[in-house]
C-alpha cells in the first residue's frame, strides 16, 4: 500500500477492501477493539515505525469512551425504523452522524500518527497488531488479529 502514504490515506485504501473491512468489524463488534487504533498499529508495522504503545492505547481508550463509542451508539440507534419519526429525515440525520463519526476517526488517527516515529524496516503485521492490542489492556484472541493481518497482506497484492 505504499510506504509514503500517511495513515489516513493508507487506512482508507486498506479498509475499502472487503476482507479488511470484515476483519475490522469482527474485531470491533466481536472483540471490543478500536478499528482506527488497529489500523494505526498495522500501518506502524508495515512502515517499521515505533511509538509508545501505552500512551497511544491511553489516547485511544479516552477518545473511544468519550467520542467514538457514543457517536457509534447514536448511529446504530438510528438504524431501525423509529415511528413516528419520518424514515427519510431519520436517515439524513443518521448520515450526518456517520459523517461526524468518520471525522472523529480521522482526528483519532491523526493524533495517533503524530505519536509515530520515522519509518524503518517493516515488521510483522500480526506482531504489531498483537503488541498494540496487548497495550490496550484487552487483547482479542490472536486468531482474530491474524485474520486482519492476512486480509491486509492479501489486499496489498
Detailed description of the structure:
By secondary structure, the chain is an all-alpha fold. The protein is about 70% helix and about 0% strand. The protein has helices at about 5-15, 20-30, 35-45, 55-75, 85-115, 125-135, 140-155. The mean pLDDT is about 95.
Main attributes of the structure:
72% helix; 157 residues; mainly alpha
Short description:
The protein is an all-alpha fold and 157 residues long.
Q: How many helices in DSSP terms? A: 7
**Biggest sheet layout:** none
How many discrete domains? 1
The first-to-last residue Cα distance is 9 Å
Produce the secondary structure layout.
Elements: H1 7-15, H2 18-31, H3 35-47, H4 53-77, H5 87-113, H6 125-135, H7 142-155
Helix pairs in contact: 2-7, 3-6, 4-5, 4-6, 6-7
